[in-house]
Specification:
The structure is a homodimer of 136-residue chains.
Chain A: E1 5-12, H1 16-27, E2 31-32, E3 36-38, E4 43-49, E5 57-63, H2 71-75, E6 79-87, H3 90-99, E7 103-110, E8 118-123, E9 129-134
Parallel strand pairs in A: 1-5, 6-9
Antiparallel strand pairs in A: 1-6, 2-4, 3-4, 4-5, 7-8, 8-9
Chain lengths: 136, 136
C-alpha cells in the first residue's frame, strides 16, 4: 500500500440529516458536504467538512431505501462500517487484493460522491470491508 | 481537533493469533507487534507493522476473558470498533468533548500498549466510540 492513504472512514446512520448536527458538534466542524445520492449503491453519503486537520475524513452513510447495500448493517445497529483507501492504480490494487485472498464485493464503478472517480469494494476473510477510491 | 491525528482504527476479533495472518496478508505487512495484555480493559491488542505508509495504524483487539470491555461487541459480530485520536492535551480535549455532548466511557488511565501513555474513551450520541491517546 505504498502509494495509498486512508481517505475516509464510513459510519452508517439511519438518517444523515438527523445524525449530522451531532457529528458536526462532536468534531467541531461547521457543516457537512452536500448529501450525495448514489443510485448504484442505493445510499446517501456526506462528509464532515472541513476535514479535521491531520486526520482522515468522516463519511456518513445512510440507506436510500430498503434494498440499500447498508440496510442490513443498519439493522444490526449501524456504526463504523468501512475504511476507504485512495489509490493510484485501482485495477492493479484490486488484482493484488484478490491475490491476497480478499473477495470482490463491487467491481469498479463511478461514484457521484467523488466526481465520477471509480470506487470498488472488497471484503477480507475477517470481514473488514474496504473501499478503494481511484486517485483523481 | 487542530493538533490531533487519527492514530489507529480498532478492529475487534475473537483471537489476535488467528486473525493476524489474514490481516498481515491483506495489508502486505510482515507481522504484528507484540500482543499486549491490558488488564484494565481486559483486552489483548496488537498492531500491524510496519504501519502502512500514509495511513493510520490498524489495531487488532480481542477479549481477555468473558468480562472484557469488547466481549459484547464481539458477540454481535466484531469488526470495526473505534477510532483513536492522538492529542497533546488529553484532559483539555476530554473537557471539550464533554462540553460537546460526548459521554465519558473511561477516564484517563495508563495503557500498556502505549508505553504507559494515558488513554481515555468517550462515546457520542450516535454511538461513535472514540479513544484519545495522550501524545508521547
Amino acid at each position: 500500500m505504498s502509494d495509498e492513504t486512508l481517505h475516509h472512514v464510513g459510519f452508517v446512520v439511519a438518517s444523515i440529516e438527523n445524525a449530522a448536527p451531532g457529528f458536526c458538534r462532536i468534531y467541531g466542524v461547521q457543516e457537512i458536504s452536500k448529501i450525495y445520492h448514489d443510485p448504484l449503491q442505493r445510499v446517501y453519503v456526506a462528509f464532515l467538512q472541513p476535514q479535521p486537520p491531520g486526520s482522515c475524513q468522516i463519511e456518513l452513510v445512510a440507506p436510500a431505501g430498503p434494498d440499500s447495500t447498508v440496510q442490513g448493517f443498519l439493522e444490526k445497529g449501524g456504526g463504523l462500517h468501512h475504511l476507504c483507501y485512495e489509490v493510484s492504480d485501482l485495477d492493479g490494487r484490486l488484482n493484488e487484493m484478490r491475490a491476497r485472498g480478499a473477495m470482490m464485493v463491487r467491481k469498479p464503478k463511478p461514484a457521484v460522491a467523488f466526481g465520477g472517480r471509480r470506487i470498488a469494494w472488497v471484503v477480507t476473510a475477517e470481514k473488514l470491508l474496504i473501499e478503494f477510491l481511484e486517485r483523481g
